[in-house]
Specification:
Catalytic activity: alpha-D-glucose 6-phosphate = beta-D-fructose 6-phosphate
Number of domains: 2
Bound molecules: 5-phosphoarabinonic acid
Keywords: Gluconeogenesis, Glycolysis, Isomerase
Pathway: Carbohydrate degradation; glycolysis; D-glyceraldehyde 3-phosphate and glycerone phosphate from D-glucose: step 2/4
Organism: Clostridium boliviensis
Number of helices: 16
Helix content: 40-55%
Pfam family, one: PGI
Strand content: 5-15%
Strand order of the largest sheet: 1-10-9-7-8
Distance between the termini: 53 Å
Length: 421
Amino acid sequence: MKEISMELIDGSSWLTTEEITGKMEEYAPYLDEVKYGEKQYEDNLGWLNVDEWAGEKWITYYQELAADVRKNADVFVVIGIGGSNQAARAVVDAIGETGPVTIKWAGNSISANSIRNVLQELEGRSVYINLIAKNFETLEPGIGFRALRSFMKKEYGDEYAKRVICTGTAGSHLEKLCKVNGFHFLPFPLNIGGRFTALSPVGLFPMAVAGINIGAIAAGAKCMRQKLLEESASESMALKYAVIRNMLYQKGFGMEMLSYFEPRYFRFAKWWMQLFGESEGKDNKGLYPLFGNFSEDLHSVGQFLQDGSNIIFETFLDIQNTGASYVLHNDHVDDLFDYLDGKDFDEINRAAFEATITAHSKKFPCVKLSVPAVDEETFGQLFYFYEFVCYLSAKILGVNPFDQPGVEAYKEHMFQRLGKN
Ligand code: PA5
């Protein structure tokens, strides 16, 4: 399997090799704890051993269930927010659906315009829905599910329940609803928090409905787990990345920007943003995660990055084989772009990528994460790598990666306004 790899590019000399090596030695014991998981977090580590929720039996089960949906559906609506939809959406947006089913996303906003648009797109098509909710108290998927249920009842009458699959926790109110109403119930792992669920039914089932090869996603994740287990502390890619992130944070960089030159990684960047934002941003600490959708964003924030205050460092996703090609031919209009005659968009994009990393790394350190291709195996590797690095980074920072107490503050005010008891 072609593996992802990492490299530090620091023309600005913020970090010396000696400093990094020293810190890696200091935090080596943390790596061992993260490899096998700590007792204090055992209720949150269902993702750490990939087989627990993405082993062969599970993969076959998700695929069989997905095959049933694919036989009859034109559209499959995933209703969920945050960790309950981002991983599946990242993969489906980057790789695309194959086969008969189009995936739509709902339950991730409170906008009347958004829900109306989704419902309009369903008219006249064969629809199945998948509500994904860990605690089934989150407002967005709750009201999205209601809106979709009304649509389904109107379209399919009493038979609508056969088209509803709910991913929820055992013993939850949602499970009761499924029993009473005849919806199919799929387990949401009790031992995984939303943002770590990419490699579980939460992420894998909708991907399978889209025609994604989820066996290859799991294989990629297992390959990455094996690599991270086998690497010693001095050669560990995860430890090096976590240490670099922490050292830069200690030197005053407050933000990490995930930059990429393939816009189809936008949803992956959103997944990454949630993973790190919710896991590290607590106790008045943490790097703020943001992303650069290049080359477009170079025309908006490029100036700040190159010349503004030193608060951001960058991690570049280097997508080595995009699998796409479009050659630019000369159409004999004197547009002054002749120097690009016969060049491929892909080649021009690479030149822009290399130029940007050269320019930016003269100002602040840049990490380059080389991703061999846009495919399932690399997504499996990326999900596992980042979840592991996130756990390790939070440990170095001294925060609990698996809770999110801060997200409740605005909800209290909102529920008060909406009259929830
Ligand atoms: O990581 C988390 O736990 C959260 O971001 C959740 O994924 C998100 O809030 C959605 O929660 P739920 O599935 O309970 O609706």
